[in-house]
Structure formats: C-alpha cells, structure tokens
Amino acid sequence: MNDAVLGPTLLRPFDTSRAVRLAVTTWFGIAAIGHGIFLAYILAVFYPPIAQSGLHGLQGLEHLPAGFREGDTLGNLAAVAHVLLAAIVIGGGPLQLVPAVRRHAPSFHRWLGRSYLLAAVISSVGGLYMIWTRHSIGNLVNQITISIDGVLILVFAFLALRNVMAGRIAEHRRWALRLFMVASAVWFFRVALMGWATLTGGWGIDWESFTGPFVYALGVGQYLLPLAMLEWYFHCQKREAGHRAKLAFVSTLVPLTVFMAIGIFAATMGMWLPRI
Ligand code: HEM
To answer: TM segments (predicted)?
Structure first.
C-alpha cells in the first residue's frame, strides 16, 4: 500500500465534524439532565407553598431572602412570578432545542417557544425589579453582573422573535440558541459555583457575604463563556472551518462538559436535594 493512499487516513484518523457533533450532543444531553433536576427542585420547593399561600408563599424561605417583604405587593408578585415562570424557562429551554421535537411536533414547538419567550421576559423583568429594590445576597458587583444577564435576555428574546416573524429561520435559530445560553445562565452559575467549590474547596468565594474574585468572575462568566462557546460552535459549522479549529473546540468542550457534570452532581447533592 503506498503513502498516497495511507497518508490522509493516518493524518486524519477521525472526522472532526463528527467529533464536534458528538461533543455537542453529549454536552447537551448532560445539560438537559441537569436542567431536569433544577426543574424538579423548582417544582418541589416553590410551587406547593405558592399554591397554598399565594403571595405569602415565599415568606420565611431561608434560601430566598429577597422572596417576600411584608406590604410590598408588587415586589412579592414579581418574586412569585419569577420562580413560577422559572420552571418554564428551565424545563422548556432544552425541549425547544431537541431537533426531533421541532420536526415531529412543530405546533408544540411554536407554542412552547412563545411560552418560553414570554416566561423568560417576565422572569427577567421580575428579577431586575427584585435585584434593584430588595437586598439580596452579594453586593453591587453581583447586582450589576446579573442585571447584564437580565438585559441580554430581553434583547435576545426580541431578536429571536423579530427574526422568526420575518421568516429568517437561520437567524432565528442563532438568536434562540443565544437566548437559551443567557436564560440558562443562572443554571450555569449554580452548577459552576458548586463544581468549583467541590474541586477547589471554594477558592475565591466568601460564603458569608457571597463576594470574592471567583464569584465576580462567574458573575460575567455565567453568560460570557456559554455565549463564546456557542459562537465557536457556529464557526465550526461553517464550510470553511478547518480541522484545527474543530479539534480545538472539541478539546475545550470536553473538559468543560466534565466540569459541568461534576457541578450538576455537586449542586444536586449540596444545594437542591437538601432543600426539598
Ligand atoms: C430567566 C432566567 C432566570 C431563571 C430561570 C431564574 C431562576 C431563579 C430561581 C429558581 C430562583 C430561586 C432561587 C433558587 O432557589 O435557586 C431565583 C431567585 C432570584 N433571581 Fe432569578 N432567574 C432568572 C433570571 C434572573 C435575573 C435576570 C435576575 C436579575 C436581574 C434574577 C434575580 C433573582 C433574584 C433577586 C432572586 C432572589 C434571590 C434572593 O432571594 O436572595 N434572576 N431565580
């Protein structure tokens, strides 16, 4: 067998486009499981007290210090709407991204899409209201970094909607994926925080005041890193994307996925399960 035949096969032992697809599908599968666990937590912890006591339902919840204020009906309404609609954002986001759902149940995809968009918008307006009118954990840096996420959600929701209404489906898909990344940033935050605490013992985190270099970095990293990875993925999907770019993408996504899996486990065991 001569080198001309053997060479390319040896130099390129596997298809890098397939590797990208495999890495992204694995990442998505694990992220979807993690979203499912957070959804179960939201349904179990917030729905029963709200169903029982309405606007007073979030009163006295230790892990939700900004959830209830006596006499502040508008703020309590914002908090209740925020956690109720969080279920649609966290549960609906991954479902919207499953190609089989889009293909086999297009009307369900449209209805869930509208609900998801509305829930994300109301949830972030409620979140913005709470963060600037009530004292929550952290300081001004935390307030600003999460507010940027709230504004990004509103902007990306508008762009996803405008493009689908104009029939620009490829653009719509890109903005909808960006919206998913920023609407799920609060999930990335919890998972990365607990994963980091497990691996480093909590370096850069002051748990008392909920401040510190890692908390600040994660404040912006919760949406900037997922958005950066998404843009890189878009690049890898282009015809002109080289094997090196794809290989570098896979080599970055795989360790991030392992870290995410550790974080999901840590958040489930250390944060969500104990509160149920
Ligand atoms: C749309 C995506 C969002 C989802 C799915 C979401 C979800 C949640 C959930 C489940 C909680 C309850 C806390 C917990 O048990 O983990 C919560 C609390 C809260 N969220 Fe969000 N959130 C989102 C966006 C935002 C944004 C953009 C802001 C601010 C700009 C925000 C501000 C808050 C505040 C202030 C609390 C109360 C924290 C406290 O009581 O100290 N959220 N959120």
So the answer is: 22-47, 77-99, 111-132, 144-164, 176-199, 214-235, 247-273
